[in-house]
Q: What sequence folds into this?
């Protein structure tokens, strides 16, 4: 069963805590992306990666970090420096970097306690 | 930088009626994609338009790409309750490497 999985579905963060959101794909896609979605707004790009061991900042990278050690995995860490982390986080992948269709995971809802 | 604007932000439609949502880019696009996100769900790809003036249909949905490749529209005929959700357009700039710029979306509510 191919696709993108994200875990956990819901995540609670305490003040000053770092949390990591998981994203795994078995589509053999080269490119992966992290987006943030706030109510009533579109998707804003946090980080993206074209190939393993390489990634680039998106439009709102401050307070976030990523790694791409394996083709299938692109975890996102929300650090304590992100002052307003409550949002819906979506991971996506595409076959290559040439503007191909993006396939989205089910998302993780992060809530700050 | 490239910006993609969508209007309207909200669309209340009576079941059976038609409606159109519009997408406008500040720069020329290589292609434009449309996604649908059901309430509580994640965006799902609907279609991609690449050629100037291109028109594609999917059952009751008609997608159009402008001649200047800076705008697009989605027209839905005979709206059904299954059309509820938020429709996003996403444009790929001519020099932006695979980075889609998403519009804010049109949230569609269907009244039976």
A:
């Amino acid at each position: 069963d191919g696709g993108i999985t994200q875990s956990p579905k819901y995540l609670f963060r305490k003040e000053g805590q770092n949390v990591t959101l998981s994203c795994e794909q078995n589509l053999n896609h080269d490119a992966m992306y992290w987006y943030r979605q706030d109510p009533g707004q579109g998707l804003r790009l946090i980080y993206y990666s074209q190939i393993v061991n390489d990634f680039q900042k998106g439009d709102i990278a401050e307070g976030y970090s990523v790694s791409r050690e394996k083709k299938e995995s692109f975890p996102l860490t929300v650090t304590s420096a992100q002052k307003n982390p409550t949002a819906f986080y979506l991971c996506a992948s595409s076959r290559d970097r040439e503007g191909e269709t993006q396939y989205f995971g089910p998302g993780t809802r992060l809530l700050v306690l | 930088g490239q910006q993609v604007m969508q209007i309207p932000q909200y669309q209340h439609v009576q079941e059976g009626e038609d409606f159109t949502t519009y997408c406008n880019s500040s720069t020329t696009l290589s292609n434009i994609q449309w996604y649908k996100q059901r309430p509580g769900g994640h965006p799902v790809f609907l279609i991609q338009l690449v050629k100037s003036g291109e028109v594609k249909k999917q059952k009751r949905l008609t997608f159009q790409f402008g001649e200047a490749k800076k705008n697009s529209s989605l027209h839905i005929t005979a709206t059904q309750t299954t059309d509820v959700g938020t429709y996003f357009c996403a444009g790929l700039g001519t020099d932006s490497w695979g980075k889609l710029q998403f519009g804010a979306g049109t949230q569609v509510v269907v009244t039976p």
User: Anything to note?
Assistant: DSSP finds no helices and eleven strands in chain A.
